[in-house]
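#structure-requests
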Amino acid sequence: MNVNSKSGQRIIERGRVYAAVAAACLAAPAIHAQPVGVGTNAEEVTEIGIAFGAGRSDNVLRQGANESAGTYASLGAQMDIVRTRPRFNVAVAGDIEYRDYTTDGFDAERVGIIDASLEALAVPDRFSWYVGGRGGQGRTDPFGVESPENRENIDIYETGPRVTLPFGQRTSAELSATAGRRYFEVSSSLDSATTDVEAGLYRVLSPTSQLGLVVSTRSTEYDLSIYDNDVERAYLAYTKEFATGSAALSVGSNRVDNGTSVETGPYLFAQWQRRVGARSVFTTTLMNQYVDAADNIDYERLIVFGGDPGGLDSSVLLSQDVYESTDLLTSLTINGTRTTVTFGASLGEARYMTDFALDNDVINLSAVVERDMSSRMALGFEFDYAHRDFVLGPQEDDDKFIRLWLQREFSGPFSGRLGFGHNARSGNETADYDENVWTLGFQYDIRSSGGA
């Protein structure tokens, strides 16, 4: 197996990950309530990469002045695990790394994203119990650069029942109720409890299409705040599979009540995904909805999965406020015999209900190229650019991230990787910085897949 079959496949997933995860999370809640292949042993995937290494930064705190170098040892894992059994489903996906800094004053930290779920099928295709958790990071100071001193963990845990009630062969009702807890490592005022209730009536129109009417409500109660809120949605959801791709459209209404004011707005999820050739994918997605800081973890994993946990910084800005998020995302992956290329672009707009200072517009551009130099060696390049404009203030930030790496496969599943990165911000003078990072890592891969 050549290098491109491993790391190149991760790039393919990164190219379409915006749409693939968003579609599952937002456009088709029925997929969560009744995953394809439940109780049939239809799919099994095990892809685990255990990595260890070290990194050195010449400006670890990303400061414009008084720069200080930092070195860290790392232990991480990339995981894609799927198990379907007659009585349970398990899914684990993540790209996570633990760093232990040798520089005095820096605590060990976790970077990257992880998502895990277990669904116990008490009555297959009728009643199940879901337990899940996910974790990522956010910026404690929304206006500062992400660094070991401005990054904190966000952990979310959820559990609850899911019920499917069939009405004939083509119509079903799906109900779910989930209780959750959300923990923030530093910003304890954002610690909160959530309750989600969702009901959907679905009609199979053809073997490749489905129409649904969905209503949902989520209540959030903060431990140390009076800014509790309720977010309600009602929308029509349509999905269609084509020979060369898929389409999804959800249209409806959002309503959010934070106790002092009420806002309403459109709910929209529109996605078109098309396979171009045997292994290339083009995807475009448009979304509009009310979310909060913890919800943003779902969108951050769209970027991190398939990439490098030390790559593009987290854009999760920590606030108790709910905001209206509008996003247009597009990506194109071209996978040749020896070269894989991915282009991505997105436009985003966030408008907060009360925390107006955080209103911002974002532009993201990315390109990833990986070339097989031989059956055991690959060379890669990645460029990410993010421009964020805080609407009501003078701050505008341009963040640039450049990555170069050389990956070498040794005997069996063992491989090594040497990487160099240059990170920079320009904008406000007080926020400008330049950073160079060298990394050396080794990985052991456990990979198997198959279906019954």
